Amino acid sequence: MQRRELGNIEEVQQISLEDALSSQEVEVAFICSESSSHEDYIRQFLNAGKHVLVEYPMTLSWAAAQDLWKLAEQKGKVLHEEHVELLMEEFAFLKKEVVGKELLKGSLLFTAGPLEEERFGFPAFSGISRLTWLVSLFGELSLVSATLEERKEDQYMKMTVCLETENKCPLTWIEEKGPGLKRNRHLSFHFKSGSLENMPNVGVNKNIFLKDQNIFVQKLLGQFSEKELAAEQKRILHCLWLAEEIQKYCSSKK
């Protein structure tokens, strides 16, 4: 944990991790730290009897995520993984576009600046929001192959993942990161009834973090059914499992 002076932010006194864990006044923890620290912080707050909202990915391990959900259940606490990418206008547009259409093949390319793997995990984990899009649009996927090209001296990497839907339709997911690469998303989906090439301008994403926090509050108030919670947990665990399988596949090819 980064040590710094604890001052005031907008007249609210900051407190230490130790004080947050022990305070009876703290009932909920929002974890917005480096991905590599998520698992430890979630465990500490759940064990201290706090509800938890955590940025994706919840953990860098499928087994750890399962274990933490079991712990949350034992403690009677809500563990919520934030997924603002599912609240974006772009995703809402895509969801409407793919409904009722039969996919033939598709691809999703994401580019951005460098990201430290030690802090944010293997690219399949740090880029799990793209994987979540694909799973949410086309259902559970299986891994066919994956490659990772790295030039660490240039801070460059390119991960190419070949996936398959349950109907054996190919999906390609590419994460490319390096200096000078702009944050951008390129997609191409081909259906029996036509094609969707790249994303039109569908408007500004408004208050997506607040919307996600509202979902968390609804869970705290018991306004989500067991069926809804189970479906969400299944999707999150499937994406974490896929990310781990991709990492294993790439490591085996080194």
TrEMBL record:
Residues that span the membrane, as ranges: none
Residues engaged in binding NADP(+): S35, S36, S37, H38, Y56
One GO term (biological process): heme catabolic process
Domain Biliverdin reductase catalytic: 91-201
Any one of the GO CC terms: cytoplasm
Molecular-function annotations in GO: biliverdin reductase [NAD(P)H] activity; nucleotide binding; zinc ion binding
The organism's place on the tree of life at top rank: Eukaryota
Binding-site residues for Zn(2+), renumbered to this chain: H238, C239, C250
Cofactor: Zn(2+)
Keywords: Metal-binding, NADP, Zinc
A Pfam family matched in the record: Biliv-reduc_cat
InterPro entries for this protein: Biliverdin_Rdtase_A, Biliverdin_Rdtase_cat, Gfo/Idh/MocA-like_OxRdtase_N, Gfo/Idh/MocA_Oxidoreductases, NAD(P)-bd_dom_sf
Domain Gfo/Idh/MocA-like oxidoreductase N-terminal: 16-83
Cofactor: binding details: Binds 1 zinc ion per subunit.
Name of the protein in question: Biliverdin reductase A isoform X2
Gene behind the chain: BLVRA
